[in-house]
Specification:
The protein has helices at residues 39-60, 68-88, 99-125, 128-135, 137-150, 156-183, 188-226, 230-252, 257-263, 269-296, 299-308, 310-320, 327-351, 368-378. It is mainly α and 379 residues long. Helix 2 runs antiparallel to helix 8, helix 2 crosses helix 10 and helix 5 packs parallel to helix 7. The longest helix is centred in the middle third of the chain and has 39 residues, at 188-226. Mean pLDDT is 78; it is low at 1-18, 20-26, 28-35 and 356-379.
Length: 379
């Protein structure tokens, strides 16, 4: 599934599912020989990220689609089947299922479900460019989570990039609302309905940022207990999530014949099903190509590629979907793009120097609530 694992320098993209990207400092499984030319893996990684976002948007933007849990369950099943086939073929390796390891990893899988579900809801209500821009806010939450729980620090340049991220999000939201008011200004009812839809999208986006940050910080804590590698994490995340997603779909989603007809109209049924399956395969592609990209380049280059990749993802929403193309919306994309580059460069500079507290806090005494949250990850 889509989206989105962070790395310790929190420069990773948060993709929709969050299922296929792991911390950079985790040991990598053996990979088959691949060309050393970095252009091919970089383009493959960017292409798989764009494909996953666009296929999810295609399914979710269908008229009246509301079976989000089903979509996520199908993606998880496809992902598990795909990596099992790859394992049987000797392409990848990962651990066999272990009950004790599953028990330790289960809290992370619950956080992942929250992340990917809120991601699909946000993508359902918002355009791809706005969704991509708001995703940057997750970086800020994770950065300060690192400060509180892992003794990290935030430099002046990183802090400035955070300001640009917030600014780009404000511009994007303002541009969206202004476009809605101008497009439906002739009908107060339609304009109000469109703004309400956007507000719902912003709410889901904020919940997604919080869930994504909690997932990344929790995974970093738990991965030290299990010493999982890339595809170990993908396997356990999907295997543990599938039963919950299937149960949630059966219990909370409308499976009446009428609603199924709405979600899978006869003329588009095959295309929607194929898109659901393809988006599950995309998570495997993202995991493989991200590992491939790091292996033939460097973690620094990969981090920069992750920042640069936000631009084509945002542009794909303008090209393939009816996202409004206005000066404010393009400006928001540009500011968000610059903020990502600046943040990545700040982390590169910080990693080349001895760790020292600069701004605005470094490892500080924990409050009772922070200590309680920290202890909860240990249990």
């Amino acid at each position: 599934m889509a989206d989105d694992k962070k790395r310790d320098d929190y420069t990773i993209e948060m993709n929709d599912s969050g299922r296929g990207k792991e911390p950079l400092n985790s040991p990598r499984p053996p990979m088959p020989a691949a060309p050393s030319n970095p252009i091919i893996p970089i383009l493959s990684y960017c292409g798989s990220s764009i494909l996953m976002t666009c296929t999810n948007k295609f399914v979710l933007s269908g008229f009246g689609f509301n079976l989000n849990f089903l979509l996520l369950a199908v993606q998880g099943i496809v992902c598990v089947v795909a990596i099992q086939i790859c394992k049987s073929s000797g392409i990848i390796t990962y651990r066999d299922f272990n009950t004790d390891e599953a028990r330790k990893w289960f809290p992370v899988s619950l956080l992942l479900i929250g992340t990917i579900y809120t991601s699909t809801k946000a993508l359902q209500f918002l355009s791809i460019p706005v969704y991509t821009i708001f995703k940057n806010l997750t970086i800020i939450i994770i950065a300060y989570g690192e400060v509180l729980w892992f003794g990290g620090s935030v430099t002046g340049m990183a802090l400035f990039s955070f300001g640009l991220m917030v600014l780009s999000s404000v511009i994007a939201a303002w541009a969206d609302i202004q476009h809605a008011l101008q497009s439906y200004g002739h009908s107060e009812t339609e304009a109000s309905a469109k703004v309400s839809t956007l507000n719902a999208g912003y709410m889901w986006m904020m919940l997604n940022c919080l869930c994504s940050a909690a997932f990344v910080l929790g995974m970093r804590k738990r991965i030290k207990l299990t010493n999982f590698k890339d595809f170990d994490t993908m396997f356990y995340n999907n295997v543990l999530s599938i039963p919950i997603l299937v149960a949630a779909s059966l219990l909370f989603e409308d499976w009446s014949a009428t609603n199924v007809e709405i979600n899978f109209p006869p003329l588009q049924r095959n295309r929607i099903i194929m898109a659901m399956i393809f988006s599950g395969l995309s998570s495997v592609f993202i995991s493989y190509t991200s590992a491939w990209c790091v292996r033939v380049t460097s973690s620094t280059t990969y981090s920069m590629v992750g920042a640069l990749n936000k631009l084509p993802i945002a542009l794909s929403g303008l090209i393939f979907f009816d996202a409004p193309i206005t000066f404010p919306s393009v400006s928001a994309i540009a500011v968000g793009f610059v903020s990502g580059i600046m943040y990545t460069w700040a982390k590169v500079k910080q990693s080349s120097k001895p760790k020292a507290g600069v701004l605005p806090t470094t490892s500080v005494p924990m409050s009772a609530s922070s200590q309680s949250a920290r202890d909860s990850f240990k249990s």
